[in-house]
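Lecture 7, part B: from sequences to assemblies.

Below are the input chains for today's worked example.
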Amino acid sequence: MDALLNISTLHYLVVGAALFLLGVIGVLTRRNVVVVLMSIELILNAVNLNLVAFSRYWQGLHGPTALHGQVFAIFVITDAAAEAAVGLGILIAFFRNKETVNVDEVNLLKW
Amino acid sequence: MTPVATPFFFYLLTAIMIIGGVLVITRKNAVHSALALISTLLAQAGLYLMLYAPFVAGVQIILYAGGIMVLFLFVIMLINLERSIRERQFNKQWLIGIVAAAALGGLFIAVYAKGKTLFPAGRVTYAEAQNTQGVASLLYDPHTGIYMFSFEIASLLLLVAIIGAVVMAKKRI
Amino acid sequence: MGALIQYIESYLKTNDVTPGAAGNIFWAFVYIVLVFLGLSVAVIAMNWLERKILAHMQVRLGPMRVGPHGLLQPIADALKLLLKEDIMPAEADGFVFWMAPLIVVLAAFTVFVVVPFGPTHAITDMNIGILFMLGVSSLSVLGIVTAGWASNSHYPMMGALRSSAQMISYEVAMGLAVVSAILMTSLHGPGLYGVGGGASDTGTLSMIGIVQAQQEQGVWFAFKFFPLGLVAFFIFAIAMVAETNRAPFDLPEAESELTAGFHTEYSGFRWSLFFLAEYSAMIAVSSIAVTLWLGGWLRPFPNLLSGPTWDLVFSVFPGITFLALAAMCFYSTARMPKHPLFKIQTIGLGGFGAVLALIGLILFVPQVRDRVGDIFWFCAKVAAFMYLYIWYRGTFPRYRFDQLMKVGWKILLPIGLAVFILTAIAGIVGFLMSQPVLH
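Predicted structure of the full complex, as structure tokens:
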């Protein structure tokens, strides 16, 4: 009980792992491209949570300005924005051609 | 600043995140998935605040919940998904996908059970009044700023992404 | 009772940080309730003021029937909206339709957690104050987009897409203007031209810190590095009008164009939530403008006219304002028609004037005067911005949507970038010129 109530780094890592698993299930099982992209955002968020949790742990060891994990998390958020923009652009271009948003109908190398 | 009722808020925010994550991957309607993802992202910003990272929480709210999700909602509304709500939602290989994810989950549990003793229970409390300045000193300070190059590369990446998205979505190039 | 007053007094005497920063949950809650009530009263007053001021600008009288000079009109409006039938379109998505006004109201009200009414009169003082305000106010775009989509009809859909495209476009210009102001918090150059100033210090994103930086530097940021601060202020003032979908940028909700845009299908109480959120958002972005450029809670001319006599002169302004309002009420009471049907209205207006006069007299008491001074100046500056909003609505014709987007991207964004770069250059020049010259 005490281990449940005393929130430590491990608690945040477990939450991050659970979110990562949900994202992986979403990517592997859904047909809708938009939902797959949103599951990828879930994965990136789980990674960010791990990074910031470890940054807090590192800050405890190396002083109040050891915020490397947080800086890394900011860069990951920036990358996620860029990737979402390009991915959705590809989705729009694809939808304009094929009129479908299901990943398993993208099965031609060239049409 | 003394934290208040930490376990309660931690479990509340975690519950919102996990339930939101489950709703994202199971809803038929893409707009419902997007709204569930917004609630997950806002709960995550709350968790960042609990980890004494207010700047990352602010960036998460502005960029993720206020930027990326608006982009998702715009695209969902531009492509007409009325037909796709009535179609089959899950892949033909959904069982293999779940088995693979379960294997990954087993790996996580094994690693965390083994390394459980590495992480100390308590944590020191540093004043968060200097969090933004701390992040900025890692980025810009002439003596301790080691991430300046990455920062410039990130801005170049965003420029490439803007050009790429515009080219991809244009009707005639 | 005596113990309660003693408890309140002991808190008011000894506090030097906001209750959120001190971790004081009870007082934080009290402040939250006070801010919420104040905001509701402000929205109700804005409703009446907008109709009366617009009417007087258009040489007509506005609401005059419900209560003396239409003072009870907002209450009648609220009653009507609450009692209207709640219509939901048949094919609309029930849950999303219900949730969209909630998202907009949440985004508009949560912003007020960091708004500083005084050096310790805020609910809390976050390290990332201005970032939090900009981020949470950008969440209202989500509510608008989902409202338009959930109505399942093409007018709301187009109105929602146009409205949200406009809001995210002007957020960029707003962000650049805000960054210019934040840059000025770290440049401790004196006076208007920042030349020969002191060494640069670390800036701050916290709202209270920004006003304290203006106090230390002795200049409001609207007048710093003249004309850069002024241009940044004007960019923000234009962008904030577009951000809140108000005239002249209100094409997405103009009745002649899109039959009320994204809230076409909302009736009764749900529509009043959108309306409440719009006025709250107006007050919120005005608070940002006042805090960043107009010195927040600082009284006018803190350096030019300093000293105890000028402090005294400026500290009687709250009382004089309320007494002037009471005088206007009494004058209108004297001009009421002497007809028996108007007796209740005359008595009501006289009573209202008496209440205002009483508040004005209370504000002359020295203890109250010192505490309330900060809050009064902040609210007076925000009220000036509200009047500007109503003035714009009565004066300017509407922008067409492509003109609106052109102004946002092709005019405000380059000017914002130029102001940002020039502010940085001005700061560096001032810093370099303050270094001792080595021969």
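Note for the exam: Chain B touches chain C through 30 residues (CB under 8 Å). Keep this in mind when comparing with the next example.
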